[in-house]
Amino acid sequence: MNGMNYSNPAVATATSALTPSEIYLDTAEEFDTSDVVDNYIPWEILLGEAVSLLQRETAAEKELRKKFSELAETWKEETKFLSSISDIIIHPAHMQIIAMGPKAVSLILNRLKEEADLWFWALNFITGENPVTQDIRGNVKAMSEAWLEWGRKNGY
Length: 156
Hints:
The protein has helices at residues 9-15, 43-79, 85-89, 92-99, 105-114, 120-127, 140-153. The chain is an all-alpha fold. It has a domain at 61-153. Helix 2 (43-79) runs antiparallel to helix 4 (92-99) and helix 4 (92-99) runs parallel beside helix 6 (120-127). It starts with 8 loop residues before the first helix and ends with a helix.
């Protein structure tokens, strides 16, 4: 371990089989940077990669939100004059939202916060849950509140 100064013999023994690139010092001791091998990646590059990954995830999330919003608006517009719950539920835009799976749950709950609406079937299909009790069935506002409370309890 050229240049490495360990004040704790147990650490020196435990790390003696490791290559310099595998050793992580948690002390303020000085060490010779020539011990760092070719596998060393500067933290600036690692940070840049992490930021790039976060930006890609953010772009994917933005695309999901955009697609959800388009589908939600289509569903709302094309079902606003329907009286058949079955026709409202099986509307293609509603079915595509359900097909988004768990990623759509927070988006649906955010819509419910803005306006009580008929998102209950989508939430039930996606989550397998139903917090709506018998005594509030048919009361869209109360049903929305039940789902919002479920969301809060489940980390949404």
